[in-house]
Amino acid sequence: MSSPMTSAEVLNREFLEMRAKVLELAASLDRLDRAEGVDANGSQGASDPRLQRLRDGLKILLSDDSERAERVQLLFSRDYDEGWRKRFGV
Question: Which of 8, 71, 86, 88 sits in a 20 to 30 Å window from 42, CA-based?
Fold first, then answer.
């Protein structure tokens, strides 16, 4: 059984990929800010729940919580529907 990696080892292995994802997200948010229908304060977000979820997801990412991935997954997931089989005809 191998021992877990240190934080430095994880950072060495994943830094460039994480950096690329942050840059990609920043570019997407910049495009959104420049798009018609959204002012500099992001007022479109008040009427679009998707943008609010993205903002909520960023808050989760910036938190010190050790369960960030789970919380983000739940943020973007639908609530469980016991009748899903019937609804989808499965």
Answer: 71
Question: What does the alpha-carbon distance between residue 75 and residue 77 come to, in Å, rounded to a whole number?
Answer: 6
Residue 74 clears pLDDT 90, i.e. is over it: yes
pLDDT for res 43: 58
How far apart CA 8 and CA 34 sit, in angstroms, is 37
Q: Where are the alpha helices (DSSP H) in the chain?
A: 7-34, 49-62, 68-75, 84-88
CA separation (Å) from 11 to 30, 64, 82, 89?
A: 27, 17, 41, 46
Residues 6+ apart with CB under 8 A from 36: none
